[in-house]
Amino acid sequence: MRTTIDLDPDVDARLRRIARERGLPLKVVLNDALRTATAPGGSADAPAYVLPTKRLGIRPGVDVDKALALAGELEDEEIARKLELRK
């Protein structure tokens, strides 16, 4: 179906950039964007973003509640070590 629409310049530029990056016709990018925006439930149907987690292997006696203080101490020790090497 052919329809004429007026796009704001920023929207047009964004759609054309996406089309160019993906190597797709503007029509396909525009239809995909409209389908996504008008889908029932909107983005609620999209799967939740899951960030993979990893074990830190924290040693007993290391208080992670004060991780910044620990990082500062380790950095200070490393600076002192490097300064000692320059004697």
Descriptive notes:
The protein is an all-alpha fold. It has a domain at 9-45. 53% of the residues lie in helices and 0% in strands. It has 3 helices and no strands. Helix 1 (9-22) packs across helix 2 (26-38). The radius of gyration is 26 Å and the shape is elongated. The model has no long low-confidence stretch (mean pLDDT 86).
Task: Give keywords.
elongated, single chain
Strand content: under 5%
Shape: elongated
Q: How many individual helices?
A: 3
Tally of DSSP β-strands:
0
Order of helices and strands: HHH
Low-confidence stretches: none
Give the class from helix and strand content and strand pairing. Answer: mainly alpha
Quickly describe the structure:
This protein is mainly alpha-helical and 87 residues long. The chain has three helices and no strands.
Task: Describe how the helices and strands are arranged.
Layout lengths: L8 H14 L3 H13 L28 H19 L2
Helix pairs in contact: 1-2
